[in-house]
Structures are given as structure tokens and as C-alpha cells.
Write a structure and sequence with these properties.
The complex is a heterodimer.
Chain A (H helix, E strand, L loop, with lengths): L2 H9 L9 H13 L5 H56 L11
Chain B lengths: L1 H16 L17 E8 H9 L6 H10 L4 E8 L12 H6 L5 E9 L2 E10 L2 E11 L2 E8 L4 H19 L23
Antiparallel strand pairs in B: 1-2, 2-6, 3-4, 4-5, 5-6
Classes of the chains: A mainly alpha, B alpha+beta.
């Protein structure tokens, strides 16, 4: 038996586990399963709230912009229509009666 | 029974759309016009717009009143750079649609190169649609409104024109609808 074999035999020699080794290992395992930092959940919830709130704000801004655009369109449409109706009223007063033709439909 | 329901549904759908005029025949003038305004607003858009109109502003309050019962508003206004680009005969596809049931001519005035027509649509005797055609040799305006319930609604629009005319006489920028060319202020031509 040479020196290497002796060293290996010494290193691989069966030894008794220290007392309560298994309980300690299991206790460590249970410890690692519990969340170390409970604020992480709160941070995640806050992030989700921020995201939902952000989407809500963006949607409200879009709704506002669309409403404003629709309002501008309506005002332009009414201005043109109103001016034409006024023109018609003026024509009714100024054009000769023969030019008016009432439809019998 | 199912067939009866389909027929009834088609009748209801037909009645709902009868007062809406197809303005596609005017699309070809968009490319020729030097100034154009094309506005298409359905009921949802009108409601959305009305929600943003202020009661404290006289002009907006009048618009809110006029828009109250509207179910749709469709406007095409084209101004041409020279005579001959538009003829009164070009209105025929529009006028042909008015031969359908429910449409009644309220006013028809024709002079040399000008034609003005006002038509109303009635369903069961109740006015629910309005069409205005104002055509000149270099300009045509067609407006189709759905849900106009009575003549006072139209008078309110005329009054709105008066307000707009007063506003145009003061140095105030005219709001321009996005996606539309700059419209003329009330009753004014661009080269005025």
C-alpha cells in the first residue's frame, strides 16, 4: 500500500454524523423556503397598481383628445351649416319669387 | 317564424338608414377642390363632442343644444379653384336617392348657376332626417343630419351661423377639425 492509497483510505473513512445533523439540515431547508423579504410582495403590488393607474391615465388622455377633436369637428360642421342656412334665409328674402319652386312631393 | 324575424329586422334596419344619404358620389371632387371640409360623425362621436361643449360659452352652448338629438352628421364642402369643375348635374346621384320613401322637398331654389335644396325625411310622420344642398359654380356644400326632430333644431343651426358670422368678424382663429382642410369662416370665401 503506497502513500496515496493510505491518504485516500483516510479521507474516505466512514465517520459518524454530528448529533442532530438531520434536524439542523431540515431546519435550514424550512428557513430558506420562507420569504426573506416580505416587502417584495408590496413592491410588486405597488408596481401593478402603478401600471394599471398609468394605463388608466393614458386612456383618459386619449378619451379627452378624441372628445376635443370631435368637438372641433362639430363646431366646424355647425359653422358651415349655420352659415349656409343663413344664406338660404337671405335668399328667401332677396331672390325673385319666380325662382322659388315648392315641390309637391 | 325565423324568416318573419329576419324580414322585420331588415325593415327596421332599412328605416334606420333611410334618412342617411350616401355621399360617395361627391368623393371625386375632393381631389379637384382647392379647399375641402369632410366631416363624418356618428352618434357616439356626437355624444362625445357634446360632452366637451361648454354651457358658459355662447357658441358652444348653441352647438350643444343643436347636437342634443342628433344621431349622425355628415358634411361635405368643396370649393373649386375655377368654374366648370363642378356642374349642377353632378348632384344627380344625390338627388336620385331622395326619390326614396320618406323624403320631402322643403325648399328648392334654383338660379342661373346656383341651386339650393332642403329636404326632410319623415318616419311615421315624425321628422328624423335633414339634407341641405347648396351648390354654386365654384362651391358645393352638402349636409345630411340624422335625428333632427323639428324645425326649431334647424333654426338653432341658423342662429349658430349668425354667431359664427359675428365671431368671424372679430380677429379670432377658426378651429380646424383634424384631418380636414381649413374651412371657410361663415359665409366667407377664401379670396375675400
Amino acid at each position: 500500500m503506497n502513500q496515496l492509497e493510505r491518504d485516500l483510505r483516510e479521507a474516505l473513512r466512514r465517520t459518524q454524523a454530528p448529533p442532530h445533523f438531520a434536524e439542523k439540515v431540515l431546519a435550514r431547508t424550512r428557513q430558506s423556503r420562507t420569504p426573506r423579504f416580505p416587502w417584495a410582495w408590496l413592491a410588486a403590488a405597488a408596481l401593478i397598481l402603478l401600471m394599471v393607474g398609468g394605463v388608466g391615465i393614458v386612456r383618459e388622455q386619449q378619451r379627452q383628445a378624441e372628445g376635443e377633436r370631435a368637438k372641433e369637428q362639430l363646431m366646424v360642421a355647425f359653422r358651415i351649416t349655420g352659415s349656409k342656412l343663413r344664406d338660404v334665409q337671405e335668399k328667401l328674402v332677396t331672390i325673385p319669387q319666380r325662382a322659388l319652386q315648392r315641390s309637391e312631393q | 317564424m325565423r324568416k318573419l324575424m329576419v324580414v322585420a329586422w331588415m325593415l327596421v334596419a332599412g328605416t334606420c338608414l333611410a334618412q342617411q344619404i350616401d355621399l360617395k358620389s361627391l368623393d371625386k371632387f375632393a381631389a379637384l377642390a382647392k379647399s375641402k371640409t369632410e366631416i363624418t360623425m356618428d352618434e357616439a362621436m356626437l355624444k362625445s363632442a357634446a360632452g366637451f361643449l361648454s354651457d358658459s360659452n355662447k357658441e358652444e352652448a348653441a352647438a350643444k343644444k343643436s347636437a342634443k338629438d342628433l344621431k349622425g352628421f355628415f358634411l361635405r364642402a368643396y370649393e373649386f379653384p375655377q368654374k366648370g369643375m363642378f356642374k349642377l348635374e353632378d348632384l344627380k346621384p344625390l338627388l336620385d336617392q331622395l326619390k326614396g320613401p320618406g323624403w320631402t322637398s322643403f325648399l328648392r331654389a334654383q338660379e342661373d348657376d346656383e341651386q339650393t335644396e332642403i329636404w326632410m325625411h319623415r318616419t311615421n310622420g315624425q321628422m328624423d332626417g335633414f339634407l341641405l344642398i347648396a351648390a354654386e359654380d365654384q362651391e358645393v356644400v352638402v349636409m345630411n343630419a340624422l335625428g333632427v326632430a323639428n324645425l326649431s333644431d334647424l333654426a338653432a343651426l341658423g342662429e349658430f351661423g349668425k354667431l359664427a358670422g359675428a365671431a368671424a368678424s372679430t380677429p379670432q382663429p377658426t378651429p380646424t377639425a383634424p384631418g380636414t382642410a381649413a374651412p371657410k369662416p361663415a359665409g366667407q370665401k377664401d379670396d375675400d
